[in-house]
Write a structure and sequence with these properties.
binds (6S)-5,6,7,8-tetrahydrofolate, single chain, 8 helices, six-stranded mixed β-sheet, alpha+beta, Gyrase A, domain 2, about 30% strand, Elongation Factor Tu (Ef-tu), domain 3
């Protein structure tokens, strides 16, 4: 049987790096922000071991940018998030929960502050542009909101510093976590941040315009041949181990940032102007009654987690699993779940109703770290 074909079109966009991704033998794509996002090259497990040992180049152009530009850009940015942005300087990136008027999560992007009057919001998989445009319009703010032609390319893995130094010069390795700078590539200045959707360390290059896409891809591949550089992508196993959340999978509009364990990125008292502030002040006072937890699910490899799996304490439903996969390094199934406070203490034993039957599961106090 041949694999089904995903037809691309103007609605379902390729990226400036798609030619490189295809040449590298991509085996599966998902759709993210209406764009192609590779999910497997060799096999998920081979990609995982390689990511933890070497260095990979990831086409994450699907991390679309929402640009805010104008005198009210800072005010608008603060209306969107309960994280206090008063200390944020140009050159910094912040992981920011974005909430609606009920405190429900709309997205969990990285905000990039280019200048006092200019931000990029590097979004997860939801159409945040419409919410931001509506807020700007409804409040009559003096700000332009649109989607610039910017395509992030991530370089992730323990050898990322070595590879980036070869292509952009040693200066790039002095960047601190979640800071960015401008670095020359073939006569073009490129915004590069130390960030990325893995726990292995690395960088993200925000390519402006598509024309240099393949030149950048090929330069990284050529410079890293002896580092065993390969095309890669966000890896399901590595991100569940590391507790990196996936919007639309692990949380939705039904959840507050506190339920998602993102309370450390909220300063709801001082985030004056945040649209969800009143709602979040109420939940922050009481504390969440359910929260994201790392879990281990016993037995052999679980099937693909395509839907929420009930988490039971006897006959009582006390939570759900939203992401789960077999971990070769930890020799157990690693999972991200949400559990009621009565059962969220580390060490609590519960039952997960997986599609292939009931399994024992244990709530953990931290994510899976080596
Ligand atoms: N990079 C960029 N854009 C993105 C992602 C990214 N957009 C989509 C998606 N990923 C957004 N989600 C996340 C989730 C987690 C992190 C970044 C983006 C992340 N979190 C760290 C943590 O939770 O420990 C660090 C946060 C911090 O300390 O500030 O990195 O990956 N451009």
């Amino acid at each position: 049987m041949t694999a089904p074909i995903l037809a691309t079109s103007r609605r379902l966009r390729r990226t400036p790096f798609s030619a490189g991704v295809e040449r590298a033998g991509v085996k599966a794509y998902t759709i993210y922000n209406h764009m192609l996002l590779p999910c497997v090259f060799d096999s998920m497990e081979a990609d995982y071991h390689h990511l933890k040992r070497h260095v990979q180049v990831w086409d994450v152009a699907c991390e679309r940018q929402v640009e805010l530009r104008g005198p009210d850009a800072g005010r608008l940015m603060q209306m969107l998030t309960p994280r206090d942005l008063r200390g944020m300087l140009p050159g910094q990136c912040y992981y920011v929960p974005i909430v609606d008027e009920t405190g429900g999560m709309l997205n969990d992007p990285v905000a990039v502050k280019l200048a006092e009057d200019r931000f990029w919001i590097s979004i997860a998989d939801s159409d945040l542009l419409y919410w931001v445009k509506a807020v700007a319009h409804g409040w009559r703010l003096d700000v332009l909101v649109d989607e610039p032609d910017v395509s992030p390319l991530a370089v992730q893995g323990p050898k990322a510093d070595a590879l980036m130094a070869r292509v952009f010069g040693a200066g790039v390795t002095t960047l601190r976590f979640f800071r960015f700078g401008w670095f020359d590539f073939q006569g073009r200045d490129m915004l590069i941040a130390r960030s990325g959707y893995s726990r292995q360390g690395g960088f993200e290059i925000y390519l402006e315009g598509g024309d240099m896409g393949m030149a950048l891809w090929e330069a990284l591949m050529a410079a890293g041949a002896d580092l065993e550089v390969r095309a890669g992508c966000p890896n399901l196993i590595e991100r569940i181990e590391g507790g990196l959340l996936s919007y639309g999978n692990d949380m939705t509009r039904e959840n507050t940032p506190h339920e998602c364990g993102l309370g450390r990125f909220c300063n709801t008292h001082s985030a004056i102007g945040c649209i969800g502030r009143d709602a979040l002040l109420r939940v922050a006072q009481e504390g969440p009654v359910r929260q994201i937890r790392s879990m281990a699910i016993e037995g052999g490899p679980v099937p693909a987690c395509e839907d929420l799996w009930p988490v039971m304490a006897g006959s009582e439903r006390v939570g759900r699993i939203s992401s789960a996969v077999w971990s070769p390094d930890f020799q157990t199934n690693v999972a991200i779940g949400m559990v009621r406070m009565t059962h969220w203490t580390p060490g609590t034993e519960l039952t997960v109703e997986a599609p292939d039957g009931a399994r024992r599961a244990v709530v953990r106090g931290e994510f899976f770290i080596q």
